[in-house]
Amino acid sequence: MKPVRLPAAATLALPRWALFALGLLYILPGLIGRDPWKNDDAASFGIMWTMLHGTWQDWLWPNIAGLSWPDEGPLAFWLGALGMKLFGWLLGDVLAARVGTIGAFLVGVLSLWYATFHLGRRQDAQPLRLAFGGQPEPDDFGRTLADAAVLIYLGCLGLLLHSHETTPEALQVSLTALLLYRTVRYVEKPSLRNAALSGLAIGLLTLARGWITPVCLMLALFACTRFLAQPAIRAMRDLGAMIAVGGLVAAVWLLPAQLLAPYHQQPLNAWMTWNWLQLDWPSWTSVKFFFRVGVWFFWPAWPFAAWAVWAWRRQRGVLHIVVPLAFVVMGVLLTLCHPQPEQGQLLVLLPPLAVMAAFGLLTVKRGAINAIDWFSVMALTLCAAVIWIFWFAKLTGWPEKAARNVLKLVPGFTPELGWIAFFVALAATLGWFVLVYWRISRQPAVLWRAVVLSSGGLILIWILMMTLFLPDFNYGKSYAGVARQIANKLPADTQCIDTNVGPAQRASFAYYAELPFAGVEGGRCNLLLLQDSIKVRDDREIQAQFRGKQWVLLWEGRRPADREERFRLYRRTD
Fold first, then answer.
1. How many CB atoms lie within 10 A of CB 150?
2. CA–CA distance, 572 with 574 (Å, rounded to integer)
3. Could you point out which of 117, 242, 324, 556 has its C-alpha 20 to 30 Å from the C-alpha of 284?
């Protein structure tokens, strides 16, 4: 017997304008007014900026002002460079590069919504018919589940920071949601057309962040087909169509890059090497990472998703559990088989977990829902209050201890009152209290009531941080100030600069100060920008790396918020 009994009153869909407004409130703060931050965010922006101001070779061989970057894939960088090309004159390069990030986020949310909607209106997902009628219609039921899945997705802690970065990871999670949607459409109606569209998503994923993940997810897709009454020959034909279309999409970059050899390099060889390095045997390190980070990274999706598997365990082969579970299992294997597990690998699990969690909400008891609501109200309201207290303290100096604690993180920073940021934060806080009052006073019976406060509260915290404390974060995480100091010390005859700085630093210095770094093919430069630790008291670092050359120090500095990192500018004298 199905574990769900639900009246039609519980399937009231969230108004379209409210869902759209919630998405904008989620994605826009943290993109507007924010500098490129160390590390991956600034490095990715540097590749986009280099493409915009470079030649065709930079589009085929991604690099950061001459520093080669053959990892991952070029799709996210192409989108950012194209955004700067089209909108840079209006929005500025930094914000224009994030137009692609906004577009990718919208694609991910829409794909997740439609994937859940199509699964939710299937006959095997419908609740039991009530004795006197009043059960929801299939489309209404699907819409409500889709709204719940989006709210859960937006409430996941792991998505919050990564979705606001101009990195391939932000694009990868959205394309994973797109592939999940195309998989749902394929299992609903197996056809050559749906197989080809799934292949398109696989090809885009390959261009975004390598072929390992899309190939494994394609295997998950075909693991789901064993529950379909489909001849093996037809399944193999569809698999061939997916591989062919995905290969054609990936060939848009790989074929020209291999034939034209930009900067006399072989992108395909370097890219394949990076891909193979993403696989290894599972280790105890990867297992510990998965459970230690996953507990908060997947919150609040994973408890509801686990409950969904348990609640529907007696319904064999229901596709609303089988399809997302296949993606989750494959994502877990990818994380455990990664030699150096990172949070970017966990992003692949968020869309399928959100879908499963929506179906888990169907069977959660009212008492558990009320407990989640009260916890969300108390915890998130307390967090918001603490943020407001620290903001007030940094401006006024009272409470003294709070002011001292917040300002010691950004030594040398002078706080100023930003009226626009203040009113946006105030409006968001008032909106939070309106939402809490509506939830408590109305006691709505709709399915998504269990997660609306969690998602809304998380968005409130993010808005407060990205308005009240955005200047602090820019001061502490941006290299703009250091870049301008270096630019002021450059000799007039500077032709190029050798350096050992990292990708984020190189990108920031190239953008903010237009430092002429040596290109991909290298060259002999008369200046050297050295990055090392402030703990090194003499010139041993430069002597070790550039032995036999004579250098004179022109400038030394660092970011005030960084207690170890140091930069030194030298001029060659030999």
1. 25
2. 6
3. 324
- Determine the residue type at 401: K
Helix (H/G/I), strand (E/B), else coil: 533: strand
Q: How far apart are CA 203 and CA 209, in angstroms?
A: 10
Confidence of residue 97 (pLDDT cuts 50, 70, 90): very high
Judge contact between 13 and 144, C-beta under 8 A. Answer: yes
Query: What φ, ψ does residue 536 adopt, rounded to 5°?
Result: -80, 115
38 SS3 class: coil
Beta bridge mates, 553: 570
Pairing type for strands 551-557 and 497-499 reads unpaired
How many angstroms separate the CA atoms of 204 and 34, rounded? Answer: 28
- Amino acid, res. 451: V
Asked if 170 and 101 count as a contact pair (C-beta separation under 8 A), the reply is: yes
Buried b (16+ CB within 10 A) or exposed e, 127-143: beeeeeeebbeeebbbb
Residue type, 503: P
pLDDT per position as a tens digit, 188-242: 888 899 999 999 999 999 999 999 999 999 989 888 877 766 677 888 888 899 9
**Which SS3 state, helix, strand or coil, does residue 285 take?**
helix
pTM of whole model > 0.85?
yes
Of 529, 518, 497, 484, whose CA–CA distance to 63 is shortest?
518
- How many helices (H) and strands (E) the chain has is answered by 26, 6
DSSP, res 129: P
Separation in Å, CA 111 to CA 23, 211, 308, 527: 14, 21, 21, 50
State the helix-helix crossing angle for 192-209 and 212-224, rounded to 10 degrees: 150
Q: How confident is the model at residue 540 (pLDDT cuts 50, 70, 90)?
A: low
Pair 347, 162: CB distance under 8 Å: yes
For 28-128, where are the alpha helices, taking DSSP H only?
40-53, 56-60, 75-91, 93-97, 99-120
> 336: which 2 tokens?
């455990």
| β-pairing verdict for 551-557 and 527-533 | unpaired
Residue 418: φ, ψ to 5°: -100, 110
**113 touches 149 (CB < 8 A):** yes
When pLDDT is cut at 50, 70 and 90, the band that residue 1 belongs to is very low
Q: Which tens digits make up the pLDDT trace of 4-21?
A: 666 665 677 788 888 888
Secondary element (H or E) of residue 569: strand 565-572
CA-based torsion, 289, 207, 165, 71: positive or negative: positive
